[in-house]
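Forgive a beginner's question, but might I ask you for the amino acids of a protein and the tokens describing how it folds?
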Amino acid sequence: MIWTVKIMRRALKQVDRLPVKGRESLADLIRDMELHGPVRGNWPNYSRLSENRHHCHIKKGQPTYVTIWEVTDKSIKLIEVTYAGTHEKAPY
């Protein structure tokens, strides 16, 4: 089953500030979530933050960039990306 991934307005603004490698990795992550769902154990430093919130690193190094997403509706398979930016400013 295909999941729908929506990038929230705030996260969309943050994506514009990501380096090229970070944007490419985020695009790969979104495609992966669309095909396989929100649990992405094959991504670096993936972890479940709560029942419906997840995060993983999209670019290692200094600074490290992370993405945070939430499953907002399991019945219609909707995922919302809520943050894409540096690890230091991530709203865990």
User: Anything to note?
Assistant: The first helix runs from residue 9 to 16. The chain has a mean pLDDT of 95. Helices lie at 9-16, 20-36.
